[in-house]
Design a protein that fits this description.
By secondary structure, this protein is mostly helical. It is 78% helix and 0% strand. The chain has one domain. The protein is built from 6 helices and no strands.
C-alpha cells in the first residue's frame, strides 16, 4: 500500500516537473490532462533510459532494478498502455545518442526522483 502511494506521488511530481518546464518540447501543445499524464510518463521513461545508458557497470544493475519498479508500479496503478509508454521511452533513452557531458545530471535526476518518492531500492 505504501509503495502504491509513493508511486502516485512520483507520477504527480513528474506532471508538476513538466508543467514547470523541465522539458517543454515534449509538453508543448498538450490539450488534455490524460495527454499531460502520458507525456510525463514518457519523459520519465526517457530520463530513466538516459540514466541507464550513462551508468557505470556497477550502477547499471541498480538503475535497471529501479526502472523495473517504476514500470511495474505504473502497470499496476495505471494500466499496461501507460506502462508501455514508459518502457518504449526507456528504450529510446537507453539507445539514442545523448550528450555524455550531461550523464551525471541524468543519473542524479533519475535517482532523486525515485528517492524523493519513497521508491528507494529495497522498499
Amino acid at each position: 500500500m505504501t509503495e502504491e502511494k509513493n508511486l502516485k506521488k512520483l507520477v504527480l511530481l513528474l506532471i508538476i516537473l513538466i508543467s514547470f518546464g523541465t522539458n517543454r518540447a515534449i509538453a508543448q501543445n498538450v490539450e488534455t490532462d490524460d495527454e499531460k499524464f502520458d507525456n510525463a510518463i514518457q519523459q520519465f521513461g526517457y530520463l530513466s533510459g538516459n540514466a541507464f545508458q550513462c551508468a557505470s557497470s556497477e550502477q547499471s544493475q541498480s538503475i535497471e532494478t529501479e526502472a523495473m519498479k517504476a514500470f511495474n508500479g505504473i502497470a499496476r496503478l495505471f494500466g499496461t498502455d501507460r506502462a508501455f509508454f514508459y518502457a518504449a521511452a526507456y528504450g529510446v533513452g537507453a539507445t539514442s545518442q545523448i550528450d555524455r557531458a550531461k550523464c551525471n545530471e541524468y543519473i542524479r535526476q533519475f535517482q532523486e526522483t525515485m528517492n524523493s518518492n519513497g521508491l528507494k531500492k529495497g522498499e
